[in-house]
Design brief:
With 115 residues, this protein is mainly α. Helices cover 82% and strands 0% of the residues. It is built from five helices and no strands. The chain has helices at residues 5-22, 24-37, 45-59, 62-74, 79-112. The protein is extended and about 55 Å long. The chain starts with a helix and ends with a helix. The relative contact order is 0.09.
């Protein structure tokens, strides 16, 4: 096991409580953003959790992984559905790295040209 995922969630909760006590405006802003992203309009809750998991791995957020995996399980999301969403995230990360490689090549060309 990479992490003790079951104990991570309450530990994160305690850390976030301390953060909130010290910076209530920041936490209030986060809660507003989170609530806006959780509004049901066109995507169902399961789809939002799958997107959240894909973003969680691309941003490397263990707390996000723990919380959104738990929520996805509670919504009846299968292991196969999660793996498919993660596969999309992996492909997008690789694609982004490839696309940004072109930026490095462009920077190299411009920066190596003598003026």
């Amino acid at each position: 096991m990479l992490l003790d995922w079951k104990s991570l969630i309450p530990k994160m909760g305690r850390s976030m409580k301390e953060f909130s006590d010290l910076s209530p405006a920041t936490m209030s802003g986060y809660r507003t953003l989170h609530a806006a992203g959780s509004e049901t309009g066109h995507l169902d809750a399961k789809t939002r959790e799958l997107i959240s998991l894909a973003v969680a791995i691309t941003t490397r957020c263990d707390g996000c992984i723990a919380n959104h995996t738990k929520k996805a399980i509670e919504l009846g999301t299968s292991r196969e559905e999660i793996v498919e969403a993660l596969g999309v995230a992996v492909a997008m990360n690789a694609g982004a790295a490839l696309a940004y490689s072109g930026r490095v090549m462009d920077a190299f060309t411009e920066l190596s040209t003598k003026e």
